[in-house]
Amino acid sequence: MKILRLAMVQIKANEDNPEENKEKIKGFLNHAKKENASIVLFPECSLTGYAPARAEELALDENSEIIKEIEKTADELGVAVCFGFMEKAKEKGSNGKGFYIAQELYSNGCKTKYRKTHLGTREHNYFDEGCDFPVNVCEDVKIGMQLCWESHIPQISGTYRSKGTELLLFPYASGMCEDRCKENWNIHLPARASDNGCFAAACNLITDKGGGGMAAWNARGRIISDYYGRDEKLMICDLGGDLPRDLFAAGHETMNSISYFDRARDIF
């Protein structure tokens, strides 16, 4: 995988002031540019705040001016940005709501939007489920997204890997914080990385009750860098290098560098 400098950002989103959240995002984009980052990852619902019961009031159309301004800033700075929001859509899904939890990855004029495909228990009361697993290409790196508790569902990561994804992004809006967040992430996120031979990165929204946390793992599931404080913060990680699939394709695979995804058989 090509070397990619990723900036992860944890912020506290004001549910009553998306303009304030937008300005925070723009400020961190400028900070990331000074650190020579290629892509900046923000948490789930970082633009609108995570407030399912207020979706009808707070959700944004994907073409809203506030979103366009973030995209314009990213274009001006020459960085890619991945940010989340509650989305108001023209079409309704299986729940008949017309609202989605969306994460947009915007890179060099190309917009990729992921709608949360597996909703949490109370999220079902307010949102529809997405059904697509789009892959974005940033700096020649193929990137996929899955949100928060979806990280517990290995089939999503496997679907992205089948499409050639090299980097998995896990934006969260979870009340877990500090040691609890670290313990939870270190159970399953390294597995999503190592099972699929992908780099992985996660960041968590800060709320009044908890939240915060950022971490990145290499394609073997080993930690690269992490931070579990609760202050608004940017963290830089350099990702890239040979993936297990590269060694597999070149015929140099060993038991210490096995590509689990390529070796798997369909046994069901």
Strand order of the biggest β-sheet: 5-4-3-2-1-12
Q: How would you sum up the global shape?
A: globular
What value does the average pLDDT take? 95
Number of strands: 12
How much β-strand is present in the residues? 25-35%
In the CATH scheme, what's the topology name? Nitrilase/N-carbamoyl-D-aminoacid amidohydrolase
- Biggest beta sheet attributes: 6 strands, mixed
Report the CATH superfamily: Carbon-nitrogen hydrolase
Named at the architecture level, the CATH assignment is 4-Layer Sandwich
Describe this structure in words.
This protein is of the alpha/beta class and 268 residues long. The protein has a single domain (4-239), classed as Carbon-nitrogen hydrolase (Nitrilase/N-carbamoyl-D-aminoacid amidohydrolase), CATH 3.60.110.10. It contains seven helices and twelve strands. It has helices at 18-34, 55-58, 65-77, 154-162, 178-196, 244-250, 260-263, and strands at residues 4-10, 39-41, 80-88, 99-107, 110-115, 136-138, 141-145, 167-172, 199-204, 214-217, 223-227, 233-239. The strands form two sheets. The chain has a six-stranded mixed β-sheet. It has a six-stranded mixed β-sheet with strand order 6-7-8-9-10-11, with helices on one face. Helix 1 (18-34) runs parallel beside helix 3. The mean pLDDT is 95.
